TrEMBL record:
The gene is thiE. Mg(2+) binds at residues 76, 95. The chain holds residues 253 to 470 of 472 of the full protein. The lineage of its organism: Bacteria, Bacillati, Bacillota, Clostridia, Eubacteriales. 4-amino-2-methyl-5-(diphosphooxymethyl)pyrimidine binds at residues 43-47, 75, 114, 143. It comes from Symbiobacterium terraclitae. This is Multifunctional fusion protein. Residues 25-194 form the Thiamine phosphate synthase/TenI domain. It comes from the Bacteria. Transmembrane segments: none annotated. 2-[(2R,5Z)-2-carboxy-4-methylthiazol-5(2H)-ylidene]ethyl phosphate binds at residues 140-142, 171, 191-192. Belongs to the Thz kinase family. Catalyzes the phosphorylation of the hydroxyl group of 4-methyl-5-beta-hydroxyethylthiazole (THZ). Signal peptide: none annotated.
Length: 218
């Protein structure tokens, strides 16, 4: 199971408060710092390295997440998720359909989907997704084919259309997280503001604080 036996898994909406995306190039020390800072959801997202290298890198992240009681999802690849015993997958509109991933991984897996519109989100929800990621909220340096940023309102449009928890993604850092929560998000998915920070642990802690305060309405 994803968490040590005898512990109750917190709701997904708590685990998703700070959702950090790492790649095969992310030093394990950065992953450790982020987990130490309280991040409870990691996504392994590696689109370029050879698959044998991805398996090795993802397995190291898997082990770190276990030690910290965090969940690990794999971007794009259901086979890689199975190979390393990840907790689930995150799928875009061009990846395996949500219902297919669900059939392969079973009812206990977490399946997330990227949706840029309310319509896509309704379809993903009906197909059995557990949460939705939407964006880009702000301009992102991390995804070459990302379209024009929508602003935090995309989180409102998507979250009002469905019951599932929604996270915003794209250019979110300190100061940009609270508007996502106020728009109805349960959390933020981030790369550069944490993984690219001089002190990734401090950046993760600051963003998590901002999210938690916004969730409390402060
Ligand atoms: N999908 C939409 S924006 C994005 C992805 C994967 C990249 C997010 O990275 P950053 O550095 O937090 O903008
Ligand atoms: Mg994808």
């Amino acid at each position: 199971g994803p968490l040590p036996a005898g512990r109750i898994a917190p709701p997904l909406s708590d685990l998703l408060s700070l959702y950090v995306l790492v790649s095969g190039a992310t030093p394990l020390s950065v992953v450790e710092a982020v987990l130490q800072a309280g991040c409870r959801m990691i996504q392994f997202r590696e689109k370029h390295l050879p698959l044998p290298v991805q398996v090795e890198a993802a397995a190291r992240v898997r082990e770190a997440c276990w030690r910290h009681g965090a969940l690990l999802l794999i971007n794009d690849r259901v086979d890689l998720a199975q190979a390393v015993g990840a907790d689930g997958v995150h799928l875009g509109q061009d990846d395996l359909p949500v219902a297919v991933a669900r059939r392969i991984l079973g009812p206990g897996a977490i399946v997330g989907a990227t949706c840029e519109t309310a319509g896509e989100a309704r379809i993903a929800q009906a197909a059995g997704a557990d949460y939705i990621g939407t964006g880009p909220v702000y301009a992102t340096p991390s995804k070459a084919d990302a379209g024009k940023p929508y602003g935090p309102d995309v989180v409102r449009r998507v979250s009002e259309a469905i019951r599932l928890p929604v996270v915003g993604i794209g250019g979110i850092g300190i100061g940009g997280a609270a508007p996502v929560i106020r728009a109805g998000g349960v959390g933020v998915a981030v790369i550069s503001s944490v993984v690219g920070a001089p002190d990734p642990g401090a950046a993760a802690r600051a963003i998590l604080d901002e999210v938690e305060r916004a969730k409390e309405g402060v």
